[in-house]
Amino acid sequence: MKNNNYGTGYVYILSNKSMPGLVKIGLTTRLPEDRSNELFKTSIPTPFEVSFRIATSHPKEVEKKSHSLLSDCRVNPNREFFEISVEGAIEAVRHSAIEMSGINSWSSGSVQNLNENDRVTLSLETGQVFALISFSNIFSNQAEIIDLWQVHSNCDQLELHCVDSTTKTSSFSSNHPFSESDPVPYLDRENKVMNGMINGREVLVAGDRLVWIPTVNDRTNQQGVIFEACGAVQVISRTWSPVIGSHGIPLILNDFNYESVWPEAKKAVDRALKLGVPRTWAPRNNRGDEWTEFGTDPQPAEYWLPQLSRRKNNVKNRKTKLCT
Question: Cross-referenced InterPro entries, in alphabetical order (predicted)?
Fold first, then answer.
């Protein structure tokens, strides 16, 4: 099993009224607004505006791919400015995120351990599936699928926040306290930039395994990706392009519409089910013990998104490294 420290950064698009027709595409581990403010110098009459941002655990790769896709639009090879519309730049960054921060960017041969303070952000693709696998009794050595989730639109985002207690986590499906509230409704400190709509909020406990399964048409990934929770994990799914179901309301992560299983999905799940017992384990049911309570200790937005902190060098940011 592979041990890493995972963090989340941003690839951003900046525009400026004084530079019509040009955008800047860059990366940062801080808020894009902080980077934008740094670029506003006396030689530029107007400030930069953050036109778009995407969170990712692979910001270097997403930025590099975006620059490559737009190489013909690059104004200067030594500068990150491109002669393209904001809409065109957004399309390039979104495409790059799926390719460079999607399922094929993770090692499918090793189990990815999720340790305390890790922050993982996955770029999703329509039709992908997640299988939640758990041991109801660690002594039985028998794992089982307890839930299936489905991605309904491209560039949806799955966040895995590894915390020190289940009391900070909540689940839609279990109706835990605060499960329907958005812990990070805004992406800036001034509460002007709304975050994507939450369409899933679930919980992993120690020993749970989450299998990321490729789409039925994906022949490049034959095994999927397996994440193993070494402690409590808050799972949050977001969408910027809600898909309306037949019932007239947006589909959520828990809406599973597949009626059959394709070979790659079966192979990925079978591999996870055959793994040995996890290194750590906790029961999913609530017995009244403090360590199995859920949703009793909600946290502020800057806990889930440390970049929102006004401290210049946030300690939590220094503890994690971005996945490369």
Answer: Phage_T5_Orf172_DNA-bd
Digit-coded pLDDT (tens) for 80-106: 999 999 999 999 999 999 999 999 888
Residue type, 312: K
Cα dist. 211→119, 161, 214 in Å? 17, 16, 10
| Residue 316 to residue 324: CA distance in whole angstroms | 19
Q: In terms of DSSP bridges, do strands 81-83 and 112-114 run parallel, antiparallel, or are they unpaired?
A: unpaired
Exposed e or buried b per residue across 87-111, where buried means at least 16 C-beta atoms within 10 angstroms of its C-beta: eebbebbbbbbbbbbbbbbbebeeb
CB 173 within 8 A of CB 147: yes
Q: Where are the alpha helices (DSSP H) in the chain?
A: 32-39, 59-69, 86-100, 263-273, 301-304, 315-319
With 0-12 CB in 10 A as exposed, 13-18 as middle and 19+ as buried, what is 208?
A: buried
What does the radius of gyration of the chain's CA atoms come to, in whole angstroms?
20
Sign (positive/negative) of CA torsion 92, 97, 98, 100? positive
> How many helices, marked H, and strands, marked E, lie in the chain?
6, 13
pLDDT tens, 132-164? 999 988 777 789 999 999 999 999 999 999 999
pTM for the structure as a whole: 0.90
CB 13 within 8 A of CB 89: yes
| Strands, sheet with 197-204, edge to edge from the N-terminal-most edge strand | 119-123, 157-163, 232-239, 197-204
Asked if residues 112 and 106 have their Cβ atoms less than 8 Å apart, the reply is yes
Question: First-to-last CA distance in the chain?
Answer: 17
Distance of CA 72 to the CA centre of its chain: 30
Q: Dihedral sign, CA of 87, 89, 90, 96?
A: positive
The two tokens of residue 218 are: 């994906």
Render 58-98 in DSSP notation, one character per residue.
-HHHHHHHHHHHTGGGBS-TTS-EEES-HHHHHHHHHHHHH
